[in-house]
């Protein structure tokens, strides 16, 4: 009983340090982890520069393994400190944590030059470590909740935009000829997307007066459309800020976003 109590106490303490952000130890842990993530991502970027890799390749390789071991220890401690390790492992941040360390270990399995492209892909995947920063930025949590709350409205909005570009692309295909670059309806839809989003690559452009008139109309609509998703997300952000949310994390499933006076987790029902 005493050993079990000691184990639960250690797990509770680790959970408080790793998942909570309102204690001195938790804040220090988050700061150190953020610095480690930034430096490890910087190593990945520097390693992609051939001149730097040739001069400091061994040092970069050593630094990569140091950060990989540190993140591995962190991942194991996270799984140990929650009551439901599988729930965390299959969550978004759990998958990100795994992707942050897995490519380095997998690169050992593919050491031959014939697998060079595979190794490069695995090395680039380490950039997923930057996603680990999201869980340590409080404002990002508000943004994620606002995005989830507005996903249906944004889906309808994207469907409307898709309908518009199909209609405009088809009209432009009828108006213009292949010499102007509108060789097919898909090509014309591509042009409509580029124009509606105000990107304007200029690789395809209308040459007739009617086509230029339609293009002008699409550009004006594009400016009006840009504000729509911004307004949707902003409205949800405003609603989110009105609601006071605790930073406490569930010790069982590691879920966050509970009310300040909540006694039970709204996701798994465990005591907070």
Your description of this structure?
The chain has 272 residues and is an all-alpha fold. It folds into two domains: 2-136, Up-down Bundle (Four Helix Bundle (Hemerythrin (Met), subunit A)), CATH 1.20.120.350; 137-272, Helix Hairpins (Orthogonal Bundle). It is 70% helix and 0% strand. It is flat and about 80 Å long.
The whole-angstrom Rg is 25 Å
Fraction in beta strands: under 5%
Biggest sheet character: none
- The total beta strand count reads 0
Q: What does the overall shape look like?
A: flat
**Oligomeric description of these chains:** single chain
Order of helices and strands: HHHHHHHHHH
* Number of alpha- plus pi-helical segments: 10
Could you please say which CATH topology of the largest domain applies here? Helix Hairpins
Helix content range: 55-70%
CATH architecture of the largest domain: Orthogonal Bundle
Distance between the termini: 23 Å
User: What class, by secondary structure content?
Assistant: mainly alpha
**In the CATH hierarchy, what is the class of the largest domain?**
Mainly Alpha
Q: Which residue ranges are poorly predicted, with pLDDT under 50 across at least 5 consecutive positions? A: none
